[in-house]
Amino acid sequence: MVNTQSISKNGGPLDAIDKLELSLDNSEFTREEVLRKACECVHELIPKANLVSLWRFNEDRSSIISLVNYDATTGKFDDNVRLDESRFPVYFQNIVEQELIVASDAREHSATSCFNEDYFEPNNIYSLLDFVLQKNYKPAGIICCESKEVRASWSAQDIEHIRMVAALISFFFEV
């Protein structure tokens, strides 16, 4: 019998994307478990992102609600944070229009500095990399990568990895 835990489609060791694909295909996993595995996958692909979260937009895209927040430094998960466009209009406009925010210095970035007082400073966040999840060609959610304690310079490979994960999980992502 072949052990699917140790080989990938091409016969080599499973990489983070292969593991995530197996999780998405496995009907035994709950939606919450798949979301958690997606966060772990993002952290494995982008190790500078020691905080990874998945968010969904409400129907009129006036707020985002966290589905899962993963802190890789503690290994803990939580959820149920809500951000409203009325408090952070610049961020919402930018993420919906650009679909990607690369903020190595999130406290100074024009689209993310709005989070300084309420979020970045109390949580020691310095860098942010966000990408929109699409459903039927409309923004449905956001993958958020953050670096706490130190500034992270996000690479082209980091951006490609977040795009790959977004493409995978967008297929099952529900608004």
What is the H-and-E element order?
HHEEEEHEHEEH
Cα radius of gyration in angstroms = 16 Å
* Average predicted confidence as pLDDT: 86
User: Termini distance?
Assistant: 39 Å
Q: Could you tell me the number of beta strands?
A: 7
What fraction strand?
A: 25-35%
User: Which regions contain 5 or more consecutive residues with pLDDT less than 50?
Assistant: 1-14
Number of helices: 5
**Which word captures the global form?**
globular
User: Major β-sheet, in short?
Assistant: 7 strands, antiparallel
What is the percent of helical residues? 25-40%
Structural class: alpha+beta
Topology:
Elements: H1 16-25, H2 31-45, E1 51-57, E2 63-71, E3 76-78, E4 82-84, H3 89-98, E5 100-103, H4 116-123, E6 125-135, E7 138-148, H5 156-170
Antiparallel strand pairs: 1-2, 1-7, 2-3, 2-4, 5-6, 6-7
Describe what you observe in this structure.
This protein has five helices and seven strands. The protein has helices spanning 16-25, 31-45, 89-98, 116-123, 156-170; strands at 51-57, 63-71, 76-78, 82-84, 100-103, 125-135, 138-148. It is globular and about 40 Å long. The protein starts with 15 loop residues before the first helix and ends in a 5-residue tail after the last helix. α2 packs antiparallel against α5. A hairpin with a 5-residue loop joins β1 (51-57) and β2 (63-71). Strands 1, 2, 3, 4, 5, 6 and 7 form a seven-stranded antiparallel beta sheet that branches. The model is unreliable at 1-14 (pLDDT under 50). It is α+β, with helices and mostly antiparallel strands.
